[in-house]
Design brief:
- This protein is α+β, with helices and mostly antiparallel strands and 237 residues long.
- It has a 5-stranded mixed sheet.
- It starts with 31 loop residues before the first helix and ends with a helix.
- It is built from 7 helices and 5 strands.
- The chain has one domain: Roll (Nuclear Transport Factor 2, Chain: A), CATH 3.10.450.50.
- Strand 4 and strand 5 form a beta hairpin.
- The protein has helices at residues 32-41, 51-68, 95-101, 127-137, 205-212, 221-229, 231-235, and strands spanning 84-87, 143-151, 155-165, 179-190, 196-202.
């Protein structure tokens, strides 16, 4: 899978095939800023056409569709009739269960912590509030790179790194400007057309959240409200 006009890392984002796509925030997202962050901060540059590059672009495309496409019929990187998502060995969720959980970052941040210890509670966040919280915390986006591919299709096993900079408030904590990153492993089951049918992720969500909670306690309600109204932030990946 290769990118198309408008984004060199993601397919199914621009072009004639997306003319009738229903975008969650009203228009296709713009990844220019996070692509710049990715290119400046990545530790691996994979050769064009390599398995690593193909897997990296597949993951970026999948994340884009999962977060930004509102209608399942518009999703092309996965077989949504078979698709499941599981985190750290938990019960696999199908698309309806993901939607029930609120979508957005919520499936990725499931936790067994008691409610009183949940700084970010996926059971209380909506798709809108989840998206707003992390776009506010990471104004330049949250970049992804594939560090190693251990096995290729039909069962892809890879190691990844996600990173961004704490440049906006998060859950009542001031930004620090520091690098926030975490590492993990994932398994993607794909068919002969490279459509994803099953995903399994393994990582410590605390690595992400801890980096966003280092700043001093503040009232960030005004920043969150501004982010909810900003057309640029709402469309950024």
């Amino acid at each position: 899978m290769s990118g198309v006009e408008g984004d060199k890392y993601r397919s199914y984002l621009h072009g004639e095939g997306e003319l009738n796509t229903t975008w969650r925030w009203g228009a296709a997202p713009n990844y220019d800023i996070v692509n710049k962050l990715f290119e400046e901060g990545r530790t691996k540059v994979w050769p064009p056409g390599s398995l690593e590059e193909k897997v990296q672009n597949l993951v970026k495309t999948w994340e884009m569709e999962l977060f930004h496409k509102a209608a399942l019929d518009d999703v092309k990187s996965m077989d949504f009739n078979k698709f499941t998502f599981s985190l750290n060995g938990r019960k696999a969720l199908d698309m309806m269960e993901i939607k029930k959980l609120g979508g957005g970052y919520n499936p990725h941040l499931q936790t067994s912590l008691p409610e009183e210890y949940r700084i970010y509670d996926p059971e209380k966040e909506t798709t809108e509030s989840s998206h707003r919280a992390f776009l506010t915390a990471f104004p330049r986006g949250f970049a992804l790179e594939v560090l190693k591919v251990y096995a290729g299709p039909p069962e892809i096993v890879y190691k990844f790194r996600h990173w961004g900079y704490s440049e906006g408030p998060f859950k009542g904590h001031a930004p620090t400007g520091d690098l926030v990153e975490f590492y993990g492993m994932a398994i993607f089951q794909v068919d002969e057309d490279m459509k994803i049918g099953r995903t399994e992720f393994f990582y410590d969500r605390g690595e992400l959240l801890a980096g966003l909670l280092k700043g001093a306690a503040i009232d960030d309600s005004s920043a969150m409200e501004a982010a909810s109204k900003c057309p640029i932030l709402r469309k950024t990946g």
